[in-house]
Amino acid sequence: YGFRILPSRLAPYSFLNFDKTTWGYKLACLVGIYAVGYAISWLLSVLNRKCSWIWFIRPKSARSENP
User: Fold this and answer.
1) Helix/strand/coil for 54
2) pLDDT (tens digit per residue) in 26-48
């Protein structure tokens, strides 16, 4: 057994055929992947800032009557 590399001409989808795609298309895909990752991380950081007050609330069972 071993790994076999599928030739580009046998790729099931046209966008997987790297021999036929241009550098512009490859660059656009790379930038698109980077932009989506950046947007997700930015949204998660905003959500963390909006919900950070949750981390500082102690439940009533953890509060003592005499602080």
Assistant:
1) helix
2) 899 899 999 999 999 999 999 98
When pLDDT is averaged across residues 36-61 and rounded to a whole number, the result is 83
Rounded to an integer, what distance in angstroms lies between the CA atom of residue 52 and that of residue 47? Answer: 8
Q: DSSP for 10-44?
A: G-SSGGG-TTTS-HHHHHHHHHHHHHHHHHHHHHH
Contact present, 10 and 19 (Cβ < 8 Å): no
Mean of the per-residue pLDDT values for the chain? 80
Length in residues, the chain: 67
d(CA 52, CA 20): 48
Residue 37 phi/psi, 5° resolution?
A: -65, -40
pTM: 0.57
